[in-house]
């Protein structure tokens, strides 16, 4: 078996890669394209050995890569028996840099414009002003331990009683709650209201009411579970005060999407509606 005689100036590929801070995979690629070929390749073991002198060439390759030369261009420089690019070649690289720099600036400008557009759209969609028409509602007022009990209340108490009374709900449906005494995370004095076509006869559970028109309401969309409502109430009232509005009625939490049609709480949509005037 052939034995490669090593000397102190020969480095295994792993040692060479560590000294040069390049991967073994990169060194094998450089060999494939004949840019940097190991000084010795053992035909029996396949081991590759580089000389200490090749360290300088490797550093030259890395330096040229850093200033924008491709591996093919670097190989051509070394095949021409020089590793120093001409002034003309350097000027071409500068022109390429200028072009790339301008392209990146244009991309940055477009990205910033897109972000601004998204933020404006999000702001407009999240908080808006609308008129709330006069409606007839079937209402039920009670105290619930937490918002988690609201779904059960609607499905097990209010819904069956409205069906028993023959309530005709409107399309699209409109339902909301009013928290008497303000927002509380537990033991909530809540009134549930759902729009109906005509007044019915009151029962022990359901009362029918005429709700007058609200000429102006500041509204906020809230996505996610109901425990997020508190902070959004705070944010919305802060915005109302900042814009110089005066609150004229009880806030409504209007339920668009919830447990009845969205399994994932992150997809629940509630719209807070606050009657105001300037």
Could you walk me through the main structural features you see in this protein, from its secondary elements to its overall organization?
With 278 residues, the chain is an alpha+beta fold. The chain contains 7 helices and 12 strands. The protein folds into 3 domains: 10-85, Multidrug-efflux Transporter Regulator, Chain: A, Domain 2, CATH 1.10.1660; 90-124; 128-277, Regulatory factor, effector binding domain (Multidrug-efflux Transporter 1 Regulator Bmrr, Chain A, Alpha-Beta Barrel), CATH 3.20.80. Helices cover 39% and strands 26% of the residues. Strand 2 (40-41) and strand 3 form a beta hairpin.
Shape: elongated
Fraction of helical residues: 25-40%
Question: Looking at CATH, which topology of the largest domain would you report?
Answer: Multidrug-efflux Transporter 1 Regulator Bmrr, Chain A
| CATH architecture heading of the largest domain | Alpha-Beta Barrel
CATH class of the largest domain: Alpha Beta
Tally of structural domains: 3
Radius of gyration: 37 Å
User: CATH superfamily assignment of the largest domain?
Assistant: Regulatory factor, effector binding domain
Query: Biggest β-sheet: count, sense, barrel?
Result: 9 strands, antiparallel
Terminal-residue CA separation: 97 Å
**Would you tell me the overall average pLDDT?**
87
* Structural classification: alpha+beta
Number of strands: 12
- How many separate helices? 7
């Amino acid at each position: 078996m052939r034995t490669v005689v090593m000397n102190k100036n020969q480095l295994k590929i792993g040692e060479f890669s560590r000294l040069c801070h390049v991967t073994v995979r990169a060194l094998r690629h450089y060999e494939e394209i004949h840019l940097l070929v190991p000084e010795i390749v053992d035909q029996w073991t396949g081991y590759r050995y580089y000389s200490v002198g090749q360290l300088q060439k490797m550093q030259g390759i890395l330096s040229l890569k850093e200033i924008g030369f491709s591996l093919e261009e670097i190989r051509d420089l070394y095949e021409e028996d020089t590793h120093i690019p001409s002034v003309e070649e350097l000027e071409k690289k500068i022109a390429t840099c200028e072009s790339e720099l301008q392209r990146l600036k244009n991309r940055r400008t477009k990205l910033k414009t897109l972000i601004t557009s998204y933020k404006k759209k999000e702001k407009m969609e999240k908080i808006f002003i609308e008129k709330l028409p006069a409606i007839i509602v079937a209402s039920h007022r009670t105290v619930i331990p937490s918002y988690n009990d609201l779904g059960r209340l609607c499905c097990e108490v209010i819904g069956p009683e409205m069906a028993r009374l023959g309530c005709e709900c409107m399309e699209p449906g409109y339902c909301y709650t009013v928290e008497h005494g303000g927002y509380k995370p537990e033991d909530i004095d809540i009134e549930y209201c759902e729009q109906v076509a005509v007044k019915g006869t009151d029962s022990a559970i359901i009362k029918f009411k005429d709700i007058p028109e609200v000429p102006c309401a500041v509204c906020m969309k809230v996505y996610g579970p109901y425990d997020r409502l508190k902070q959004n109430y705070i944010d919305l009232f802060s915005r109302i005060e900042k814009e110089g509005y005066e609150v004229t009625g009880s806030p409504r939490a209007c339920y668009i999407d919830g447990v009845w049609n969205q399994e994932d709480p992150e997809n629940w949509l509630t719209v807070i509606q606050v009657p105001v005037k300037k």
